[in-house]
Design brief:
alpha+beta; two-stranded antiparallel ribbon; OB fold (Dihydrolipoamide Acetyltransferase, E2P); 2 domains; 7 strands; de novo design (two linked rop proteins); five-stranded mixed β-barrel; single chain; 6 helices
Length: 241
């Protein structure tokens, strides 16, 4: 059968001299892999340049149950990126988000709430004109909700330490080293209550931003066994130093 769905490109790999396989997070089916024959030919009906990292696409797809590689009937850009390709800082954030999704996203079923969140994140990155240097930090906090380890409890004078292993604010030092100072715990609390539309109120120095990113990546490592090494954040650190 043929279905219409939106999709977010996660990765492409060469299949042959003329074809490629695209891994796409779709609104209707979750993660799917599509074989696109002849995509690298000059006169291809579906061109390879549509499948850039985190591109937002409109898809007509063939869906066959229990088939690992699906196929595409038609593809078009849902939204053309305007600012991301010409902005080094935004491009760096995009590649970081892409790497995080490739490491963490395992959804093979429909999850419209998650798709909507990812779509909003990417669209916001392209459309916002300034004060976007903390977008990736807010993304990591909000994305953790879908992964099952969103921080619990509230920061207060009595619960002023954040336990990274348990994902909760506590009143005394736990019996392990994976907890944050009061200052860093307060930053995490502020991130929890931030969103993409209040980014301008969350002011951080380059050093503080790097520190928070390191903390959040450590938090992910503690809760995801398949996290592995993240490399794109090093470029982010240089850009936002």
């Amino acid at each position: 059968m043929i279905y219409k769905t939106r999709g977010i490109v996660l990765r492409t790999v060469d299949y042959s001299d003329t074809s490629l396989i695209a891994k796409i997070y779709t609104e209707q089916f979750g993660i799917q892999s599509y074989l696109i024959k002849g995509a690298k030919r000059k006169k291809a009906s579906i061109k390879s340049n549509l499948f850039q990292p985190l591109a937002l696409l409109e898809l007509e797809v063939y869906k066959k149950e229990k088939q690992q590689l699906q196929s595409l009937k038609e593809v078009g850009a849902e939204i053309h990126f305007i600012s991301i390709p010409n902005n080094q800082a935004k491009t760096s954030i995009l590649f970081f988000l892409n790497e995080i999704l490739l490491k963490c996203l395992q959804e093979e079923e429909e999850n419209m709430e998650l798709f909507s969140f990812l779509h909003e994140t990417i669209q916001t990155l392209d459309s916002v004109e300034k004060n976007f240097s903390n977008l990736h930090l807010i993304f990591l906090i909000r994305f953790s909700r879908f992964l099952g380890f969103f921080p619990q409890g509230n920061y207060s004078d009595t619960n002023s330490l954040f336990d990274l292993r348990e994902g909760i604010f506590v009143g005394q030092e736990p019996m392990h080293p994976d907890f944050l100072t009061k200052e860093n715990s307060a930053f995490i609390s502020k991130l929890i209550f931030s969103n993409y539309y209040s980014m301008e109120t969350f002011s951080l120095s380059g050093k503080e931003r790097k520190n928070l990113l390191d903390i959040l990546l450590r938090y992910y490592e503690l809760h995801l066994s398949n996290m592995g090494n993240i490399t794109s954040h090093k470029i982010l650190e240089q850009v936002f130093a």
